[in-house]
Amino acid sequence: MIEVRGLTKRYGDVLAVDDLSFVVEPGKVTGFLGPNGAGKSTTMRMVLGLDRPTAGRALVNGRAFATLGEPLREVGALLDPGAVHPGRTGRSHLRVAARANGIPERRVAEVIEQVGLGGAARRRIKGYSLGMRQRLGIAAALLADPRVLLFDEPMNGLDLDGIRWIRGLLRELADQQRTVLVSSHLLSEMQQTADRLIVIGRGRLIADTTTEDILRGL
Ligand code: ADP
Ligand code: ADP
């Protein structure tokens, strides 16, 4: 579960996140929808303890990220698919991440299989398409088998097959009773993906309801 209470982030004159409150429950895919610059990434970064709130708080399974005993086992995230060493292979990238975090080596092969990277895992990341980079980022998020998952714009730049694949994966993770929050700036991406939508604009909550209701016009 993710709980955000009065979460606020100010960068100088920009109020990136403005008194945001919502709860993300396990067992469903929750979409986090809003135009570019709405504050989705900033919110996710605060949930992950990568950014300090100006006010309010963000809790993962009832605790602030900094106080989680084994944070990676509780929450995994796809934030920036570019944050990898391009000269490494996908598999070595995952191996390094596993080793650094005390995750058993066998998980590397499991997540490579789970995200369908296949033989590409043995090739250097610099030759990867955007879709393969997204798969690798998702594999890294899944390494520690976390109960809570945050995906920031995972469908960006993917073709229809890639989008269908991500939809299936999100559904599978939710069916395993995990908490799944996935951001997008496109309602069209979310309408066949999310059970529920949290909609924000200019850092503020606009709607928090089922995807069906949003499509019906509330
Ligand atoms: P989204 O993910 O919805 O596209 P962001 O959370 O990235 O939105 O950005 C929200 C607002 O905060 C934007 O106006 C963005 O320019 C600003 N912002 C985000 N990060 C920073 C930062 N590190 N410094 C200054 N402004 C930032
Ligand atoms: P995203 O669209 O995924 O939020 P961005 O390209 O907007 O990614 O941001 C990349 C990095 O730059 C992030 O660390 C973000 O916090 C920071 N950033 C975003 N907007 C601004 C801004 N206006 N000023 C300074 N840093 C920013």
UniProtKB/TrEMBL annotation:
What GO molecular function annotation could you give as one example from this UniProt entry?
ATP binding
Q: Where is the ABC transporter domain?
A: 2-218
Coiled-coil regions listed in the entry: none
User: Shown portion of the whole protein?
Assistant: 1 to 218 of 313
User: What is this protein's record name?
Assistant: ABC-2 type transport system ATP-binding protein
Q: Which organism is it from?
A: Micromonospora echinaurantiaca
This protein's record includes keyword ATP-binding: yes
Annotated keywords: ATP-binding, Nucleotide-binding, Transport
Recorded family membership? Belongs to the ABC transporter superfamily.
